[in-house]
Design a protein that fits this description.
InterPro entries: LprI-like_N
Number of helices: 6
Shape: globular
Order of helices and strands: HHHHHH
Structural class: mainly alpha
CATH topology: Substrate Binding Domain Of Dnak, Chain:A, Domain 2
CATH architecture: Up-down Bundle
Distance between the termini: 51 Å
Strand content: under 5%
Pfam families: LprI (PF07007)
Helix content: over 70%
Number of domains: 1
Keywords: Signal
CATH class: Mainly Alpha
């Protein structure tokens, strides 16, 4: 086993453990859902009025409120928890729209999407592992990891949502 494969294995294990630790207690709440839906609807309404806005503008809509209103929300662990709660919302939207695309795309198109999605997951995991490890043993590492997961997942969820919208036309 080479040093590189050992390092990759260690990074993968850290990422899995960090993801599982965050995921256990950081499911989005009803309040998070309301914040995110309100933002989504506002972006949609503005676009219908001829303005150009993207769903990415909603990143932080729930996590920022969580950090401001939850006890301990401005601590490193509180920020990480709030960010991962919002990440879980974006991840659910991504998964719902991905499954909806399975119903509207041609089988060969969906196979291409599935292959791309698998590669995207590998990219996201590697990228966020880098952000986690970059901060070494510092407490900032959990916030950096959570921020990476939120931003990367939200970007992909918006992209999948746009593909679904175009496929429904």
């Amino acid at each position: 086993m080479t040093i590189l494969s050992k390092l990759f294995g260690a990074v993968s294990l850290i990422l899995i453990l960090a993801t599982n630790a965050f995921a256990q207690d950081n499911q989005f709440t009803t309040a998070d859902e309301i914040q995110m839906q309100n933002c989504w609807e506002a972006v949609t309404d503005l676009n219908l009025q001829g303005e150009e806005h993207t769903l990415i503008e909603c990143v932080g809509a729930a996590s920022n409120v969580c950090m401001e209103e939850e006890e301990g929300g401005m601590t490193t662990m509180g920020m990480s928890a709030c960010i991962m709660r919002e990440h879980s919302w974006w991840d659910s939207i991504l998964n719902i729209n991905y499954q909806n695309l399975k119903q509207v795309l041609q089988p060969s198109q969906f196979e291409d999407l599935r292959d791309a999605q698998r590669k995207w997951i590998a990219y996201r995991d590697a990228s966020c592992a880098f952000h986690y490890n970059y901060w070494g043993e510092g407490t900032m590492r959990s916030t950096a990891f959570a921020g990476c997961m939120l931003d990367t997942t939200a970007q992909r969820a918006a992209e999948i949502s746009n593909i679904l919208d175009m496929s429904m036309m």
